[in-house]
Amino acid sequence: MFLVPLLLMILAPVLGVAHGVEEGDAAFIQGQAGFQFWPYFYLGAKHMVTGFDHLAFLAGVIFFLYKLKEVGLYVTLFAIGHSLTLIAGVWFDIPANVYLIDAIIGFSVVYKAFENIGGLKSLGLSINPKYAVFTFGLFHGFGLATKLQQLTLSEEGLFENLIAFNIGVELGQLSALIVMVTFMNAWRYSDKFQAQSLIANSILMGMGFLFIFYQLTGYVVEV
């Protein structure tokens, strides 16, 4: 029965392909001036728990991590990566095409699922998973930055607001991880875990491809 919640997390990217800032939230944030901790904190937390591409990648990352120490290490690497590019991307107004960045985020889901089913080994590739998670974290951070770059934000208190947004992202991520780790730990007690894990990661990889297709289609239409 624990396969069902996992599959819902895996299928979620299809439902969340357009997870930009909602109009109401955007209008409220753009109407604020100066340091506004709670609005930006709320926006960051909301964006993470509804950013199913980010959650799908994290699900792939923790899929075969059995120790909380390992989960903490990989999630920390991911958090450092996306925090750096989230803050730098907005603060320095680094240009990035939202569709291409999100396509790379979709690829990160494909990559992790492919790695989970032994795809890299079958190709004779040996890539340090820690480096991969950190690198993809950088792109996930740019993905978050592009959402804020689409808004007209007040320059007053901008850096502090970015920190508040990032704190919200981290707590939203932590909340989602608690749920995912709980389900994963319970599911692993099932005798069918190994067989079902192949199916789940194959579905996860398929959803990643669909996400890539959606974003690249948007890019072609925009160009």
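The above is record 1. Record 2 follows with the same two-line structure.
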Amino acid sequence: MALVKLASAKGIALPELLFWRQALTIPVMLGALSLSGQLHRLRTKRARSHAFRAAFSCVGMTSVFTAAILLTLPQASVLSFTSPFFAVLVTALIVREKVGPWRWVAVAIGFVGVLLIAQPGAEHVHPIGAAAGLVAAMVVVVISYQVKDLARTDDPLACVFYLALFASLYLAVLLPFFAKPHSSGEWLLLVAIGLVGTLAQYLMTVSLMYGAIATVLIMDYALLLWTTVLSVVIWGQWPHPAIWLGAPLIIAAGIIITWRERRLSHRPPAVSTGDID
């Protein structure tokens, strides 16, 4: 997020940032896997599913980058914490799983926190940036389910590689309209975005393989610490007090959701009279 914000300040257009974030992943992975003799890890029979996931990821990346560019880093990170709330909504409205009062109360508490951060007069919050942050949080939930499904059959490295491949193809359509010459410093920024993004994508994919979605998403709360440090060190921006009012509510709500889902996952299934036989 910090690298994207720095690159945007140097005049690099968003579509180009998105393209290089994914395109640089391809040669890095192909080179590393070739040298280690592990190209077989990219085998897949689910190219269509990877392409579909990449389309959603392009929307998600666009939203994440837009939020990072238009908002302060702590603002953008706190809005990303709303992912568990959208996970509850997806569970209730799409998966059709029963959602009890604990999780609904947690969602309500979390959105009160969002309103505290975005309240008029508390701190200037760019409306497009705020909307992008919320869209990103919602798309992360959809992508999490997609990754969880793909990871049943495909290697995590394959998930990362085909995301980069298909996303690069989609974003290449826009590149002729936004690409421009860059200085060596700007190219270093773009390469750093690609490398750091590849590592982050791989780690997220692996975490979703081995952990429950809600548990993985709650780890994002560490983001507030790192974005605050970077915001102060690089831009000299301290978070507005409204952040410290709303963030605890959002984090508490996410913890309640995770606690409740863990309890439900360990609850023994109900036994009907027919099961006794």
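Residues 11-263 form one domain.
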